[in-house]
Amino acid sequence: MVSIKNIIRLLALPVLWMGLVQLCFGLLSMFLFRDNIGKAFINPALIYIAVATFLIYRLKKENLRDINYREALMFATLTWVVMGLLGGIPVMFVTGVSYTDAVFEATSALTTTGATVLSKLDALPKSFLMYRQFLQWMGGLGVVIFVVAVLPMLNVGGMRLLKAETPGPVKDDKLSPRIANTAHYLWFIYLLLTVLCALTYYLAGMSLYDAIAHSFTTISTGGFSTHDASMWFFESHLILSISNIFMLLGAISFALHFRVLHSTSLKLYWRDEETRIFIFIVLGLSILLTLMLVQGNRYNFLEGVSFATFHVISFITSTGFGAADLGSWPAQTGFFLVFCGYLGGCAGSTAGGNKIIRDIITFKVIRREVLRCLHPKAVFPLRFQKKVVDDRVHHAVMAFMSIAAGSSLVFTLLLMATGLDFWSSFTAVAACINVLGPGFGEVGSNFIPVSDNGIWLLNGAMILGRLEYFTVLTMLMPGFWRY
């Protein structure tokens, strides 16, 4: 049974958080950037804070029970919906776009998709651009994981919420006996990597403002930039290389980062099967893309390596930074990069896509079935990290892959029904459902050509992809609502 009061009590926290964030950016606009858009943040922020404070105070007197798993699933989904709806208000006020487009921009930021309906970014106010960057950083590790860290204030257990939010097929690896401590450790690693990224960008030649702004969207693998030219605004292969390193770190499990930091042994990265294969895949795909670019004499060899590696990492980690006019590249490179986006990063990271652990298990399932055709009586156990994979896990993985393919097909057909051509529709859906960002065709520069109906479809695709399908789809089952 789902308690509406429990859900409202939980949702009051992200509403309060969004209010505080917008209030801070309103004050930054007034006193630091002095760009005269403070009211666009402060007015809605005061309303959010007042409503959230009232709800928390009012429901604190209620004798509410602990949340169950159904409520955790609802909260994980509704948090992204509510945050997108509220986060879009300043976007609408500052840029003058419609509320539909503003919600898309905010949802794209929070889910770290990086698709945008805005243009001429260089001319927009600095406080607003930093707000977009910060939304991606906030959404990178997960708003729900942030909420878990403060749930003890409401005497609410957080394990169910963390499992509903955490990406990947295996959700029982704990960092700490206390779930709140786990959330704190994750945020500590996240903040540490962000600071290191900003410092390195600054030393490489970015301004302090750009270094901080791009560190937010590199570690979160979000991909928003403060410039229309994205990372090539700086015209520096050194900055592209630095971005490669931190995009990869953002796409590796944060639980693994914690274990490495705790043990001070970098060997743990190599011993982790998912991370090891992820690095090999990145290297292999980078070599293939380099050959495609150099073969056409578009770049010399070193430039080809730099641009190819950067874009492979940008797409496979679902960051979506750009450093070249992809529309002028050979036609096959577009499909190649979309394929990279579907592969995804590691489970438990900020990256989107299918996740490498699922790709590995899928490959091993296919290989086992081929071997069974050759040796019908043989037994071939499925192993990952030298352990036999539980049947429930690889069944869930195959179900996920089927749903991912089916969802891409359905959303593509629906988007085509709004008037977009197939290639634009497919890459727009791929960009949103894999929380990737860049598309091709009509949406190669931005998503302005998409109709309002199409924008709301893509909003749903981003949330579906961010929560990896099952969390959202479970709510559509009749059994979810039965007592």
Briefly characterize the structure.
The chain is mostly helical and 483 residues long.
Written description of the protein model:
The chain is an all-alpha fold. Strands 1-2 form a two-stranded antiparallel ribbon.
Strands, helices and their partners?
Blueprint: H1 4-33, H2 38-60, H3 69-95, H4 99-110, H5 126-141, H6 143-150, H7 159-165, H8 179-203, H9 208-219, H10 237-250, H11 254-263, H12 267-271, H13 273-295, H14 301-316, H15 331-343, H16 356-374, E1 383-384, E2 387-388, H17 391-416, H18 422-433, H19 452-466, H20 470-473
Antiparallel strand pairs: 1-2
Helix pairs in contact: 1-2, 1-3, 1-5, 2-3, 3-4, 3-7, 4-5, 4-19, 5-9, 6-8, 8-9, 8-10, 8-11, 10-14, 13-14, 14-15, 16-17, 17-18, 17-19, 18-19
Q: Can you tag this structure with a few keywords?
A:
483 residues, 20 helices, two-stranded antiparallel ribbon, mainly alpha
Low-confidence stretches: 150-162, 174-179
Succession of helices and strands: HHHHHHHHHHHHHHHHEEHHHH
Helical residue percent? 55-70%
CA gyration radius, whole angstroms: 22 Å
End-to-end Cα distance:
5 Å
Give the percentage of residues in beta strands. under 5%
User: Tally of extended strands?
Assistant: 2
Please give the count of helices. 20
Largest sheet: 2 strands, antiparallel
Spatial ordering of strands, largest sheet = 1-2
What class, by secondary structure content?
Answer: mainly alpha
The whole-number mean of residue pLDDT values reads 89
- Principal-axis shape equals globular
